[in-house]
Amino acid sequence: MRLLVQRTTEASVSINGTVHNSIEKGLVIFLGIETGDTEEDCNWLIQKISKLRIFNNEDGKMNHSIKGVNGAFLVISQFTLHASTKKGNRPSYIRAAPPEIAIPLYEQFITKLESTGSQVSTGIFGADMKVRLTNDGPVTIWIDSKNRE
Prior knowledge:
This protein is of the alpha/beta class. It has a single domain, classed as D-tyrosyl-trna(Tyr) Deacylase, Chain: A. 19% of the residues lie in helices and 39% in strands. The strands form two sheets. Strands 1, 2, 3, 6, 7 and 8 form a six-stranded mixed sheet that branches. A hairpin with a 5-residue loop joins strand 4 and strand 5. Helix 1 packs parallel to helix 2. The longest helix has 16 residues, at 99-114. The radius of gyration is 15 Å and the shape is globular. It starts with a strand and ends in a 5-residue tail after the last strand. The mean pLDDT is 96.
């Protein structure tokens, strides 16, 4: 599983021209699931992002987690995080998991993230979504469960 995490002051996801969900201060998580991902990948990522200290304290140092700032999560499914651009000019998405694998892991990820006690909003898996966000910092972090060391 791959995550692209962006610290935000506000974010929303719209579907068919209507805002589906929005958050204020928090993290937008673009979640890419590949064939071979498991519940273990999901658990590791949940532990990592729920404790990730990337919010500023009163001294301006990144020392608070999402709970420390009463922030929220906005989770967006993003198969293109597994794009391969090694050959040619058209990305290949062969590593991205098909829906029958990705949807259950996406739903599991959301359920486990909700169990951390933070507010969790989402897009709709597979929908054509328009995501708007104000990247705070900017802070953008890439996390891959296959690259833990």
